[in-house]
Design a protein that fits this description.
The structure holds 2 protein chains of 2 kinds.
Chain A lengths: L9 E5 L5 E3 L4 E10 L20 E10 L7 H8 L3 E7 L8 E17 L5 E17 L1
Antiparallel strand pairs in A: 1-2, 1-5, 3-4, 4-7, 5-6, 6-7
Chain B lengths: L9 E4 L2 E2 L4 E10 L20 E10 L7 H8 L3 E7 L8 E15 L7 E23 L3 E6 L11 E9 L5 E8 L6 E9 L4 E7 L5 E8 L3 E9 L6
Chain lengths: ~140, ~240
């Protein structure tokens, strides 16, 4: 399949009332970082560093968006879920049928708001794993 | 609701409006998510409900006049202050974030080709809440300011918080209370905020139970200016 533009990505976050909220209309950058520990077991005599597979996995989703004070919009959602349980679905190419989606049970650990006289008001947030695993499936 | 430019923001610190000397604000809220990953887990596991924190940095320009930012910030370094940030000005019903914090850093910079600039960091210490402005009030005795603070149409069972910033006093003491109503018709006192005789102060109070609609009732012998802000710490304000 072809490479894809990123402009059609979609992001859904569950608010403090466990309602699904689409925030794509305010988001302009998303990074989903999926990592795994690879414990090093390099020993004397090895030429190259040696590591073990099947280590602990983790993920972090960070995004940048525009600030909005409306009910059920970015500021209300993330002020409410900071430190609390949430769930998200991120779709790199949008949410049409057969499009890929990543989802997981998560917790929001950071919510930052930025305001400058010459700029639009912006926010950024970080979501990390709470329980279970990061699921990749399709709509 | 639309995205917004940031140029109309208001920053109030301990009863002082520093907006006119500020040009950038960053408000950062964090939460701990203690890791409880154990053997047999394939993915890191964390707990929700961890302790939260807040930090606000305000950048601006040095103002050395009496009651200017240089005097204010120097006086309040390592002191507890009440801070209120309103992204869309202090018009009634506008959303904002308020908290109690400590000015942990005051930095001023001077360079031959630039304007003198400042940067302060206010580190959270205690309550932090999101809410709505009850408006910028400038008036004399016996007035009220009508405003809605709407939380899904139900009583704020978790209680509410209020910050009352007294920016100036015309010459006589100012007293105020928060009134609330379930129907925006019949109002009763939710909390008495007391009497203030000196400008440049902030009163913070918690309200154990508050109805949907709120307004500020105040009494002043002469023209005084103030901003009142009501919100909740554990929920969202609609």
């Amino acid at each position: 399949m072809a490479k894809t533009v990123a402009r059609n990505a979609s992001l859904y976050v569950w608010d403090s009332a466990a309602a699904c909220r689409a925030i794509s209309g305010y988001v302009n950058q998303v990074t989903l970082s999926y990592t795994a520990e690879a414990p090093e077991v390099t020993s004397f005599g090895d030429d190259n560093r040696t590591r073990l597979p099947n280590g602990l996995k983790d993920y972090e989703l960070t995004f940048d968006a525009f600030f909005s004070t409306g009910a059920n919009e970015v500021d209300a959602i993330f002020s409410g879920i900071l430190g609390g349980s949430t769930y998200f679905i991120f779709s790199p190419t949008g949410s049409s049928t057969c499009s890929i989606q990543y989802s997981a049970c998560a917790v929001c650990t950071s919510y930052e708001m930025n305001f400058g006289v010459e700029d639009a008001a912006t926010v950024s947030a970080t979501i990390v794993n709470r329980a279970g695993s990061l699921t990749r499936t399709t709509w | 609701m639309a995205k917004i430019t940031a140029r109309d923001a208001r920053v109030i610190i301990e009863g002082h409006d520093v907006s006119g000397d500020s040009n950038s604000v960053t408000l950062t809220r964090n939460a701990e998510a203690p890791e409880v990953t154990c053997f047999q887990d394939s993915v890191r596991t964390r707990l929700a409900g961890g302790v939260r924190d807040i930090e606000m940095t305000v950048d601006g320009f040095v103002n050395t006049s009496a009651s200017g930012t240089d005097q204010l910030y120097k006086e309040y370094v390592n002191q507890e202050v009440r801070a209120l940030f309103l992204p869309e000005n202090w018009t009634y019903r506008k959303i904002g974030h308020a908290f109690t914090g400590i000015i942990s850093n005051y930095e001023s910079s001077y360079s031959v080709e630039d304007a003198a600039t400042t940067s302060i960091t206010v580190t959270g210490s205690g309550v932090c809440f999101r809410g709505r402005s009850l408006g910028y009030i400038s008036g004399e005795a016996g007035s009220t300011s009508g405003c809605q603070v709407d939380v899904t149409g139900s009583i704020m069972d978790a209680g509410a918080w209020v910050q009352w910033h007294i920016l100036s006093i015309g010459g006589c003491d100012v007293s105020a209370c928060i009134e609330h109503s379930s129907n925006n018709s019949t109002y009763a006192t939710a909390i008495d905020l007391g009497t203030v005789s000196t400008a440049g102060q902030t009163i913070t109070a918690s309200i154990s139970s508050m109805n949907r609609f709120a307004r500020l009732r105040y009494a002043s012998g002469s023209v005084s200016t103030m901003v009142a802000f009501v919100g909740v710490s554990s929920s969202t304000v609609n």
